[in-house]
Design brief:
This protein is α/β, with parallel strands linked by helices and 269 residues long.
């Protein structure tokens, strides 16, 4: 197999410790500018994942992100933001990380090297063929996620992945691979940088586009968002004023009564 781990290749920059703070961040910024273009090349792959995920969710399925380290944390973040943003159940999009919740804040030794725990973690969530599992690994070589996908494939569960190394073991295992080649990192091997940014951008696309296609956005507004603080209540009031062309006093009463923009709009019809 012709596989090169680009994420581990030598940085294009040397003697970092001799650079000024401004020089360091200028170089980092220049590298970051390339990430969006790398993601752009993978839009057809990302589109396929969104289309499949949307159809599965329409039929009662769920999205599972699974990863280790930075990749796992990014999946957990994206999943955790879906309920407040789109008003969906916290069961609909779930993030699993090698080492469990402890690993969100602290490194768990050898967790990503397990060839069995990923599948065990999915089974604990009662994974079914209605669901889609999206593995996230910059290297594309993490045993925790590769073997989770192997078991999913055996059980005819839809599999996808986000990796930054083309032709990696993970991308070859996933039925719907997303490969984003961001090149060597500024700090050699530090895939929390460009690779992490690429993964975050891709996860934003997957969750946002899927939720829009499920009807969770009206025009360009989050009408199903959870009103969990004063800022969001104010946003909901202004959204209602603008969308329904009503006075603020009525908007405030409707939001106070229904606690939800969609329900308030429905009450006006």
């Amino acid at each position: 197999m012709d596989f090169k781990k680009i994420t581990e290749q030598e940085s294009n920059y040397n003697n970092l410790e001799q650079m000024t703070a401004l020089e360091l961040i200028q170089h980092i910024n220049n590298e970051d500018k390339t990430v969006a273009f790398a993601v752009e090349k993978s839009l057809p792959q990302i589109t396929k994942v969104i289309e499949v995920a949307t159809e599965l969710l329409k039929k009662g399925g769920r999205i599972f992100y699974i990863g280790a380290g930075t990749s796992g944390r990014l999946g957990v973040v994206d999943a955790s933001e879906c309920p407040p943003t789109f008003g969906v159940s916290d069961e609909l999009v779930q993030g699993l990380i090698a080492g469990g919740d402890t690993a969100i804040r602290n490194a768990v030794e050898n967790a990503e090297d397990s060839t069995t725990q990923g599948w065990i973690d999915l089974q604990r969530r009662k994974i079914t063929t209605s669901d889609i599992v999206i593995a996230i690994a910059a290297s594309g070589t993490t045993p925790y996620v590769i073997h989770a996908l192997k078991n999913c494939n055996k059980q005819k569960i839809t599999t996808a992945c986000i990796s930054c190394n083309p032709k990696s073991p993970l991308t070859l295992e996933a039925k719907l691979p997303i490969e984003i080649e961001v090149g060597p990192e500024f700090v050699t091997g530090s895939s929390r940088m460009k690779a992490g940014t690429a993964q975050k951008m891709t996860l934003n696309m997957i969750s946002t586009a899927t939720m829009i296609r499920l009807g969770k956005i009206k025009d360009n507004r989050m009408i199903d968002m959870q009103l969990s603080n004063d800022k969001l209540v104010e946003r909901a009031i202004l959204m209602l004023i603008d969308t329904a062309n009503i006075e603020r006093q009525l908007a405030e009463k409707l939001i106070q009564k229904y606690g939800n923009v969609r329900q308030a709009l429905n009450a006006l019809q």
